[in-house]
From TrEMBL:
Belongs to the UPF0398 family. It holds the Pfam family YpsA. InterPro entries: YspA (IPR010697). PANTHER family: UPF0398 PROTEIN SPR0331 (PTHR38440:SF1), UPF0398 PROTEIN YPSA (PTHR38440). Signal peptide: none annotated. The lineage of its organism: Bacteria, Bacillati, Bacillota, Bacilli, Bacillales. This is UPF0398 protein N783_14410. It comes from the Bacteria. It comes from Pontibacillus marinus BH030004 = DSM 16465.
Amino acid sequence: MKVITVSGYKPMEMGLFQIDDPKIDYVKETIKRRLLPLIEEGVEWVLISGNMGVEIWTGEIIIDLKNEYDVKLGIFPPFLNQENRWPEKQQEQYRMLTEGADFFKPLYNKEYEGPYQFQARDQWLLEKSDACLLLYDEETGGSPGYFLEKAKQYQENHDYQIYYITPFDIDDTVREMMMEDPNYWSE
């Protein structure tokens, strides 16, 4: 496996409304812990569309990991200026991420026109990757469910792996990080 697509929830779907919410650190650490073994096993490219939340956090993780690992980040938004309606802080976060990416190219060289652009994005990401990693909870549902359904359909006719990060994985990371803190054991 050389190329993986990562997607998942937007911040508001996870109850995260501030760009500096400390809970984001736990989510990012969980994503990192899930990606590292895949990178160590040969993943060379991580693809995202640059959505707020899991995708932007993944991009930030990959940019940090590039100092230690031979991994590249590709960002492929479905259309031009997808960030225009986002809050200013997220727009800045997105701009910084696109500047640090190894490759950036909107799939449609025009502004938003309709849902077909999102459907084409999902199909393109599936065809260009060997697997996907999704932060998703089947019981909660939400926007990543559309990509997951398309990935499951794609998997029927292709050798394609679907990896998950669940809320339980994040809870495990929180516990592990708390126990890694020396102060945890001295109380």
